[in-house]
Design goal:
The chain has 287 residues and is of the alpha/beta class. Helices cover 39% and strands 24% of the residues. Strands 7-8-9-6-10-11 form a six-stranded mixed β-sheet, covered by helices on one side. Helix 4 packs parallel to helix 5, helix 5 packs antiparallel against helix 9 and helix 7 crosses helix 9. The longest helix has 19 residues. The chain is globular and about 55 Å long.
Length: 287
C-alpha cells in the first residue's frame, strides 16, 4: 500500500484482509505516524517511511496505489520497474498519454496493471448491463457536495475536478453499455477546477448518452438506460457495498496475478476511458 488515503483505510485494507487470496504486508506514507496507525488498526506487519521501501520489499508481489491523481504515473512506473503488479485507483492517470505509457511499461516488465474501478466487479451493475438489449440512450449521473479548498480534488495540478473524480464513472458505464463514442459535446463550470460537467456522447449506429458529474449537488447517483423494450433504471450504480466490491476486485486481481491470466479490466479499457475524458475536457474548455 502506497499512501494512507481514506479510501485505503475505509475500504481497500479491510477488503484485502477479507480476501481469499491476498494479504497486506507493507504500507508506506509520507506521514509515517499515520501509516503506523493504519498498520496497527489493520494488522500490517511492515511500515516504511518511504514508498520505495514498499516497492523494494521482496515480500511484496503487488502494490495498491491510492495516491492523488498526479502521482499515479510516477509510482506505477516505479513499481512496475521493480517487478511489482499494480492496482491503481481511478482515474488511472491524468490523461490518455500517461495511461498509455503506464500500460506499455507494465507490458515490458511482464506485470499486471489494473485500474481500480471496483463497481465493475459488483454483480448488481454487471447483471444490469448484461440484461440490456439494444440500448439506445444512457443517462448517468454522479454528484455530491464537496467544499474543502485544501483538498487535492480542488487542485488542478493534482488532477482535481469533478470530471476526473466522478465523471470517470459516468463515462466508464456509458462505454461499458454502448462502446466507443464518435462524437462529444461538453460544458463545465467552476474556478480552478471543474465543479460540474455535463457531456453528450454520440455512438456509431446512433445511440447517445447524457453524462453529468458534480461537486455542487446533494449526493446523486443514478443510471437510466432506454432500450427497444423499455426503460431500465439502476439506483446507486457505483457504490453498492453488499457484497463488498472492493473484496471482489482485489480477489479478481489476485487471481489474475496468481494464475497468469489477463486482468479483468485491461489497460486498453482504461486508456479508452481516459481518451473520452480528455475529449470531454477539451470540448468543455472550447479547445
Amino acid at each position: 500500500m502506497l499512501g494512507a488515503a481514506g479510501i485505503a483505510d475505509k475500504f481497500v485494507m479491510p477488503a484485502i484482509a477479507a480476501s481469499s487470496n491476498g494479504r497486506l504486508v507493507a504500507i508506506a506514507s509520507r506521514d509515517e505516524k499515520k501509516a503506523q496507525g493504519l498498520a496497527s488498526r489493520h494488522g500490517v506487519p511492515h511500515v516504511s517511511a518511504t514508498y520505495e521501501g514498499v516497492i523494494e520489499d521482496p515480500e511484496v508481489d503487488a502494490v495498491y496505489i491510492p495516491l492523488v491523481n498526479s502521482l499515479h504515473k510516477e509510482w506505477t512506473l516505479r513499481a512496475v520497474a521493480a517487478g511489482k503488479h499494480v492496482i491503481c485507483e481511478k482515474p488511472l492517470a491524468m490523461n490518455a498519454v500517461e495511461a498509455e505509457e503506464m500500460g506499455a511499461a507494465a507490458v515490458k516488465a511482464g506485470v499486471h496493471l489494473m485500474e481500480a474501478f471496483m463497481y465493475r466487479f459488483h454483480p448488481r451493475p454487471a447483471d444490469f448491463v448484461r440484461s440490456l438489449r439494444e440500448p439506445m440512450f444512457v443517462h448517468a449521473t454522479f454528484g455530491f457536495s464537496f467544499d474543502k479548498p485544501a483538498n487535492y480534488r480542488m487542485k488542478k495540478e493534482l488532477g482535481g475536478g469533478a470530471l476526473l473524480d466522478v465523471g470517470c464513472y459516468a463515462v466508464n458505464v456509458a462505454r461499458w453499455i454502448l462502446g466507443e463514442p464518435d462524437g462529444v459535446a461538453a460544458w463545465a463550470r467552476g474556478g480552478e477546477v471543474d465543479m460540474t460537467v455535463s457531456a453528450l456522447l454520440h455512438f456509431p449506429g446512433g445511440a447517445t448518452a447524457a453524462l453529468w458529474a458534480s461537486f455542487e449537488s446533494p449526493e446523486e447517483q443514478e443510471l437510466t438506460v432506454i432500450t427497444r423494450d423499455g426503460r431500465h433504471r439502476l439506483e446507486r450504480p457505483f457504490s453498492t457495498m453488499e457484497p463488498d466490491p472492493y473484496r471482489l476486485m482485489v480477489e479478481s486481481f489476485g487471481q489474475s496475478v496468481l494464475g497468469g491470466q489477463p486482468a479483468a479490466i485491461p489497460v486498453s479499457e482504461s486508456v479508452a476511458n481516459m481518451k473520452v475524458l480528455d475529449w470531454i475536457a477539451r470540448e468543455a474548455a472550447g479547445i
